[in-house]
Amino acid sequence: IYRYNIKCVCVCVCVCVYGNDCTKASAQSCGECIQVGEKCGWCTFENFLKQGESKSTRCDEVEALIKKGCPNGTIENPRGSVTVNQNKPVTNRKKDVAQTADQITQIQPQKLTLNLRAGEPQKFSLTFKRAEDYPIDLYYLMDLSFSMKDDLENVKNLGTDLMKEMQTITSDFRIGFGSFVEKTVMPYISTTPAKLLNPCTADQNCTSPFSYKNVLKLTKNGAEFNKLVSKQQISGNLDSPEGGFDAIMQVAVCGEQIGWRNVTRLLVFSTDAGFHFAGDGKLGGIVLPNDGKCHLKDNMYTMSHYYDYPSIAHLVQKLSDNNIQTIFAVTEEFQSVYKELKNLIPKSAVGTLSSNSSNVIKLIIDAYNSLSSEVILENSKLPEGVSISYVSHCKNGVSETGDNGRKCSNISIGDEVSFDVAITAKGCPSHGKSETIKIKPLGFNEEVVIVLNFICECECHDNGVANSDKCHFGNGTFECGACRCNEGRIGRVCECSKDDVRTEDLDANCRMDNGTDICSNNGDCICGTCECKKRDNPEERYEGKFCECDNFNCDRSNNKLCGGHGQCVCRVCVCDTNYTGSACDCSLDTQSCVASNGQICNGRGTCECGVCKCTDQKFQGPTCEICPTCPGVCTEHKACVQCRAFQTGEFKDTCQEKCSYFNLAIVDKKEDLPQPNSQPYLTHCKERDANDCWFFFTYSTGNDTVQVYVVKDPECPAGPDIIPIVAGLVAGIVLIGLALLLIWKLLMIIHDRREFAKFEKEKMNAKWDAGENPIYKSAVTTVVNPKYEGK
């Protein structure tokens, strides 16, 4: 872009969208109107409609109806409401106070009635408080396939040991036991007679295979639990996945046989293998879907060979319906599988079971604490067109919306949390009856019952007059200010029959002045009467017997209809007070023409439509105060002020004739001059005379007088003092000379020092030759006696 110097221009297109859902719905009755949306109202004033307007014009937003002239008190706009029918406070229970589960309240309120208006959410709050010492029923469901043999030994004392541990949590605890293996058909087990008696190897004593057995109904007797579990024997099957889902389904739906109470219900599912689910039964020729019903006979599941395994969704539904929280106690090998299953089953937990189930008690306690510390709200199936939303207010001021708005975590005993619930209906159900929904915290037996009543008709509907004379000889019911036609009748007052009327016979009644246009091309001819079309903008409308009038085709000013100072009535502006003109753009108010001196247009023009029209062409501006070609006030009156105050200036010889048009006053100082805003039209001036002296004056105009105030003495600049100037000049020359000498001397010193340093350096580096002079002869001559032998 920069290389080729291309400029990009962004064009913004504004699209104006007019109209609203109320007017677009073309509602023919009050009941239809209020179902369009919460903002829609219906005008019941009988004479509200203007000629050419249809019945649907009565339906609009309330503010729009008032603007259209619907009187106060004649607009039907029913509102929804919330009524609390049962509101027991949450229980502050202590462990030493004896209370049954039915006497404990953990959620408040318990029952409400909502009157729902279409599009209007009805809001209420729910409070949940986790009660102390709440009763618990725990059912231990164990896999008794051969691989769980060592686990069974450790579970035999589970009853009494778990009872002791649970005493710290609740004083009302019951425990039960059940076991499962697999469907008793091929290929899940071997159906040979010998294997049906003992599915294990010959050296192992195993019991016959079974699908699910309810060994012990829920009981407070831990010793009985130990006794019955001790009698259990391991069985066996062929494939690795087990039939645990069949057992879970029966535990969930066979409440009477299991002994479930309306308390906290825990199901511990213990296994070291995977699971079969819906569709796997086809391997054994079982194709009927699980029916989700109880089939226990003598505490044995008798229909495993007849019904397929349940699906995960089916289990989720039954566990939720029966408020059962599931704890999956599985070995490390299958942790990932059951964690995925946990994500699909609300209010469930997964614990890691040791190879011999020795840690089962700790696992159960930890899982229970995890489950009970979280509350999740669930609602029953909503009626068609009804929606619900939640906002949670949890501990430490944490709030969530959306799916997270249904739950709060880390709730301790005694903690109180709340949820804001909003229920909205899009319209009325087809049957128009009340509906009941329920909201409950998952895993708890309590629930909130909500009765939904739908507002489908206006109050004025009950006062309707059937077969009213106002509806063309009784062809309709007169209600809410309009006719609701009987079947087969149409028209504003039901004046036409759908079967008998011929359109061409009635079109003539819809043509103005025998013209060719039907309803001026602005409406439809219905039963010989024009019903004018609706505009996208609800503020704009056609009206009149032939839809020949409208309220939007009048003259405009400043891009406003009728200048914003009138109403458009049948394409003619009807102006407000103090305005006139075809577009109401001419104001009769002269206030905008008043100048700062209080005169209209400064006395230089006339006020027309609130704007000054200057009579003198050289003046302009909002109040004719500007004169671009005129000198300034100060310059214009300078000569006259000079001659009157100081007898100087160009008019000093003709001052009397030319400068007598103002009153002159002399003041001693500038501070004595009139200050701004002390007079309506005041100008401060500062001018220079021929002697370069400044004189000061003010010029002001009154109603018919001009007043000038002048300072008595002009301000003249003083002459220069020669002696200091000459002395300063001489001193400056001397100082500059001295400075130049000092600089020269400094430079010479620096140069000499550099030369000396250079000499010393060369001296130190010099090398002298130490050899003898070749032409040198010593003055001493030595002669040796040749005969001398040194003796």
UniProtKB/TrEMBL annotation:
Disulfide bond annotation, renumbered to this chain: 22-458, 30-40, 33-70, 43-59, 200-206, 254-294, 394-408, 428-685, 456-460, 471-483, 480-519, 485-494, 496-510, 525-530, 527-562, 532-547, 549-554, 568-573, 570-601, 575-584, 586-593, 607-612, 609-655, 614-624, 627-630, 634-643, 640-716, 659-693
Residues of the signal peptide: none
Pfam assignment, any one: EGF_integrin
Entry keyword annotation includes Cytoplasm: no
Membrane topology: Single-pass type I membrane protein
Limits of the Integrin beta subunit tail domain: 634-721
Gene Ontology BP, a term: muscle organ development
Keyword terms: Calcium, Cell adhesion, Cell junction, Cell membrane, Cell projection, Disulfide bond, EGF-like domain, Glycoprotein, Integrin, Magnesium, Membrane, Metal-binding, Myogenesis, Phosphoprotein, Receptor, Repeat, Signal, Transmembrane, Transmembrane helix
GO cellular component: cell surface; focal adhesion; integrin complex; lamellipodium; melanosome; ruffle membrane; synapse
Listed transmembrane segments: 722-744
InterPro entries: EGF_extracell, EGF_integrin_1, EGF_integrin_2, Integrin_bsu, Integrin_bsu_cyt_dom, Integrin_bsu_tail, Integrin_bsu_tail_dom_sf, Integrin_bsu_VWA
Subcellular locations according to the entry: Cell membrane; Cell projection, Invadopodium membrane; Cell projection, Lamellipodium; Cell projection, Ruffle membrane
Residue ranges annotated for the Integrin beta subunit cytoplasmic domain, each copy included: 745-791
Gene3D superfamilies given in the database record: 4.10.1240.30, Cytochrome c1, transmembrane anchor, C-terminal, Laminin, ligand-binding face of the semaphorins, domain 2, ntegrin, alpha v. Chain A, domain 3, von Willebrand factor, type A domain
Keyword Membrane tagged: yes
Domain PSI: from-to ranges: 21-71
One Gene Ontology term of the molecular function aspect: metal ion binding
Family that this chain belongs to: Belongs to the integrin beta chain family.
Record protein name field: Integrin beta
Originating species: Pygocentrus nattereri (Red-bellied piranha)
